[in-house]
Amino acid sequence: MRPRHHIRDELLAAYATGDLAEGWSLPVATHLALCPECRARLARFEAAAGDMLETIEPAEASVESSWQEIRQRLAEAGSPTSRPKPKTETTRGDYVLPAPLRNYVGADADELKWKALGRGAYQVLVPTGDEETSVRLLRIPAGKPVPEHGHGGRELTLVLSGSFSDVTGRYGRGDLEDADEDLEHQPIAGDEEDCICLAVTDAPLRFKSRLLRFVQPMLGI
Amino acid sequence: MTEDPEDMSRLIAAVARAQDVSAFERLFRHFGPRVKAYMMRHTGNHQTAEELMQETMMLVWNKATLFDPDKGNASTWIFTIARNTFISAYRKQNRPEFDPNDPAFVPDDIAPADVEFQNRQEADLVHAALKDLPEEQRELVQRSFFGDVSHSDLAEEFGLPLGTVKSRIRMAIAKLRKSLGER
User: Fold this and answer.
1) CA nearest to B59 within chain A
2) Could you read off the pLDDT of A48-89 as tens digits, one per residue?
3) With a CB-CB cutoff of 8 Å, which residues 113-152 of chain B face chain A?
4) A58 near B34, Cβ under 8 Å?
5) Over the stretch B115-158, which tens digit does the pLDDT of each residue have?
6) What single DSSP character describes residue A188?
7) Dist. CA B51–CA B36, nearest whole Å
8) Are residues B34 and A70, on separate chains, in Cβ contact within 8 Å?
9) What does the alpha-carbon distance between residue A130 and residue B40 come to, in Å, rounded to a whole number?
C-alpha cells in the first residue's frame, strides 16, 4: 500500500534546495523511496530551483579570471570521466529498511543490534554527519504505547513496519509524521506486529512523567 | 545575456560527445556567475563561493555524459550539482538520496518515459508560474527559497513589516501552487 501521510511542502522544498540537515533528510529520502507521488513533487521543486538559478542576479565580476583558471584545470583534467552506469535489472525485495536508510545502519532490521529501552521497546542509534539532530530506529511492541510526550522541537517519524496511531491519525509503512512543539501525543503501536520506525528529533523529548524525565538522559532519548 | 534552455542542453551534449571546450565556455559564462551567486548566498564569502563554483563547474564537465535532457533542463541539472557540492564540500555532510535500483524501492505506476515527459511539462509550468508572479513576490520567494536570509532580514531589506513579508511569501506560494494544480 502507498503511503498516505506525505512530506510537507516546506520540508520537501528545503530538501530540494539543500537547506535540510542530514538527519532530517534521512526520513525524507527514505519516504521518497516508497512514494512515487512525493518524487513527482520533488521533481517540481527541483525544476523551480533550477528556474530560480536562471533568474538569480549573477556574480559576474570575476568571470574572466575564473574562466582562465577553469581552462587551466580542464587542460590538466583531460576528458570527462563519468560514464552512465549500465542499467541493471533490479529484483524487488522485501527489505524492511529501504535505501538510503539501510546503508546508514549497515543491515536490515532483523540483523541489527537492538538496545533495550525498557517496557519491551528497543532502539538503534543512527549516526549522521550533522550535530543538530539525533536519529534512531525504534521498535515498539505490538499494541503497546510509546510514553506520552511533547516536543522540545520538531520530531519526524517514518514508519517502516507495523503501524502506530495517535490523535493525528494512523501511520503505516512509508507514512511520515511531522510533529512540532505544539503536539502532545501518545502514539500506540498497532496490534498486528511490532512497529519499527525511524525517529528524528532536534531536541530531547519532553516526557510528562517526572520519572521518565529523570531517566531520560540515561536512555539517551 | 539570455540563453535558450534548449541551447544549454545542446551545449552539455556537445561537452559529453566531443569534450567541446568552446561549448563548455558558453555554459561556464552563463552558469558560472549564477552558481557563484547561489554559493555567495549560502556562504557569504567570495573566495569560498568561487571555489565551490569552480568545483561545481568541473563536475559539470566531468559528468556531462550523465546529463539526460529527457529528465529535465540544463539549469535544473546544474542546480542539483551545485546543491550537492555545497552539501558535501562546504557542510561536510552526506545527502541521503533514494536509489531506484534498491530492491525495496517502490517504482512509479507509469512508465519512466512518461514520468520524464511529465517532469518536462511540469518544469515548463513551474517556469510560467514563476514568471507570472509580480516582481516583488518573485524576488521574495526566490530569496527565501534559497534559504539565504530570514524573513525578518527580508522585511528590513524591503522596508516592509515582517507580517507583510510573511503573508506575501504565503500568497506567492499559494498562487504558484494553484497554477501548478497542487493540493
Assistant:
1) A80
2) 889 889 888 899 889 999 999 999 998 887 666 666 666 666
3) 115, 118-119, 122-123, 126-127, 130, 138, 142, 145-147
4) yes
5) 777 777 777 777 777 777 777 777 777 776 665 566 777 777 77
6) E
7) 9
8) no
9) 22
CB burial of residue A221 (10 Å; 0-12, 13-18, 19+): buried
Q: Please answer yes or no on whether A129 and B36 come within 8 Å at the CB atom.
A: no
Residue A119 DSSP class:
T
**Best interface-test mutation with A: which of B53, B106, B117, B177 has the largest number of A CBs within 10 A?**
B106
Cell of A129: 554527519
Answer yes or no: is the ipTM higher than 0.90.
Answer: no
Which own/partner contact pairs does B23-30 have at CB distance under 8 Å and 24+ positions apart? B24/A74, B24/B60, B24/B61, B25/A67, B25/A71, B27/B57, B27/B60, B27/B74, B28/A66, B28/A67, B28/A70, B28/B57, B29/A63, B29/A67, B29/B1, B30/B1, B30/B3
User: DSSP for A83-109?
Assistant: -PPPP-PPPP---SS-TTHHHHHSS-G
Helices B151-158, B135-145: inter-axial angle, 10-degree rounding = 150
Name which of A9, A37, A82, A175 to mutate to probe chain B: the one with the most chain B Cβ atoms within 10 A of its Cβ.
A82
SS3 assignment, position B125: helix
- Chain Cα centroid distance, residue A174: 11
**Sequence letter at residue B6:** E
Name the residue of chain B whose CA is nearest to A46's CA: B76
A130 at the B interface (CB within 8 A)? yes
